[in-house]
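Researcher: Quick test of sequence recovery. Tokens follow.
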């Protein structure tokens, strides 16, 4: 790979805006809905906090302890493409979309996910 190609790839990576949206966590028969300003990094963050026993949702931690990490599934439900939103507008939109998905899937909200 040439230096020019490498620099172009690094620049493109730094300029890329992370996708934000709503996700579901499924473990056994339970489903939790959350939102994230960076969907690509969210799954790793959740897996890490669960592994360390530091996740704020103790119900999710209990389900993982009961069913095991193999039963844990992360699924992106909705990726939002609204580049003109303010940070406050983005947070408000994510909260409304989480409420919609919680009702639609009869799920539980994942506290502290936005």
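Model:
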């Amino acid at each position: 790979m040439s230096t020019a190609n490498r620099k172009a790839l690094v620049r493109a990576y730094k300029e890329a805006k992370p996708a934000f949206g709503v996700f579901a966590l499924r473990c056994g028969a339970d489903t939790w809905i959350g939102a994230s300003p960076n969907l690509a990094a969210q799954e790793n963050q959740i897996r890490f906090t669960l592994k360390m026993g530091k996740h704020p949702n103790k119900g999710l931690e209990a389900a993982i302890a009961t069913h095991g990490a193999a039963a844990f599934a992360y699924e992106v439900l909705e990726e939002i493409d609204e580049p003109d939103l303010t940070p406050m507008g983005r947070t408000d939109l994510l909260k409304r979309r989480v409420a919609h998905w919680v009702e639609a899937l009869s799920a539980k909200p994942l506290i502290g996910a936005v």
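The mean pLDDT is 90.
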